[in-house]
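Consider what follows.

. . .
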Amino acid sequence: MYQQLSGKAASTILGRVLALYGNRYPTADELLATPEDRLRAAGLSRQKLTYMRDLAAHVNEGTLAIDRIDLLGDAEIIEALTMVKGIGRWSAQMFLMFRLGRPDVLPETDLGIRKGLQRAYRMRSLPSPTKVQKVGARWSPYASYASWYLWRLLDGEANLTD
């Protein structure tokens, strides 16, 4: 829901969607049974709706056992989630860190991580994802914590897209 939206906009849309289901998250069946126009009226874009329905279909068909996903290893979770349309490696890594609380995740393509690493190590240029992995290998098994510190280095910066 929060991908490529401001936190406030995403929160508003999420609230509207949850209101359709009695202020709770819908089951996969419920989401698939909800008419598209109702979900679009709540603020979901066609693309986001397509992604959510693909996720619900995977759960409904049993190809993504979301209720047991926490039992899998990090690499297995990334593999399982990226089979869903609209969920890439970065999104799967954010799920590992923020939903499952996994301690050893290094989102090497994240711009904030790359900029934080550049600042922390006084690098002249933005490090490549490969360089992030190389430097970050030393942080294992606590790369998630290092990632959080790298993001905090950038707090207060007006624009991370430069």
Q: What stands out?
A: Residues 97 and 105 are 7 Å apart (CA to CA). The longest helix spans residues 46-61. The chain has two domains: 7-99, 111-153. Residues 158-162 have pLDDT under 50 and may be disordered.
